[in-house]
Amino acid sequence: MKSHALIAIAVAAGVIATGAAYAQQPASPPDLNAIPEKMPFNLPFGQPIGMERAQTLVQAAVAEANKRGWAMNVAVVDPGGNLVTFARMDGAQLASIAIAEHKARTAARFRRPTRLFEDAVQHGVLYVTTLDDVIASRGGIPLVVGGKIVGALGCSGGTGSQDEAVCTAAADTINNTQ
């Protein structure tokens, strides 16, 4: 069962990697038999993000959301998807509490932004929705430090593009740093 999930993820990654070409052409079914040369999203997991750094990320996300006038829920998880810290801004949608954490958990465990799952579904790769613990909604971003995943950030409360904008602004303060 695990090997089927890994194969499905690898194929989906190949399909998503060629998504730009599909965006320019009429929608056609992706080639699910394509076999990528290399293992996609093969970043190693690193030392889990600490609470203080995670809280700094939440503050960056909240600052971005405040700047735009959006009420958000923000979650930071470790590489295993376990909650490190969370914040709910005043007036943020209550249903989005669990969604923010789910986005972060998916981004950490699958080592990719949740937008890629959303894109896969939009391109007709519907089996992605059958994978355990996937959320096909943008707003989950892996946190990469020194080439290793230390956790992930998840934002929810607005549209997918709003969630992603807030998450990206905060994640950019840590990603690819030493």
CATH topology, by name, is: Beta-Lactamase
Shape assignment: globular
Order of helices and strands: HHHEEHHEEH
> From the coordinates shown, what is the CATH architecture?
2-Layer Sandwich
The rounded Rg comes to 16 Å
CATH superfamily: Haem-degrading domain
Mind describing the biggest β-sheet? 4 strands, antiparallel
How many β-strand stretches? 4
Task: Record the strand order, biggest sheet.
Answer: 2-1-4-3
Our count of helices gives 6
CATH class: Alpha Beta
State mean pLDDT (0 to 100 scale).
87
Structural class: alpha+beta
Share of helix, binned: 40-55%
Low-confidence stretches: 1-26
Rounded to the nearest angstrom, the distance between the terminal CA atoms is 36 Å
Description of the structure:
This protein has 178 residues and is α+β, with helices and mostly antiparallel strands. The protein has six helices and four strands. A four-stranded antiparallel β-sheet has the order 2-1-4-3. Strand 1 and strand 2 form a beta hairpin. Helix 1 crosses helix 5 (115-122) and helix 3 (51-68) packs across helix 6. The radius of gyration is 16 Å and the shape is globular.
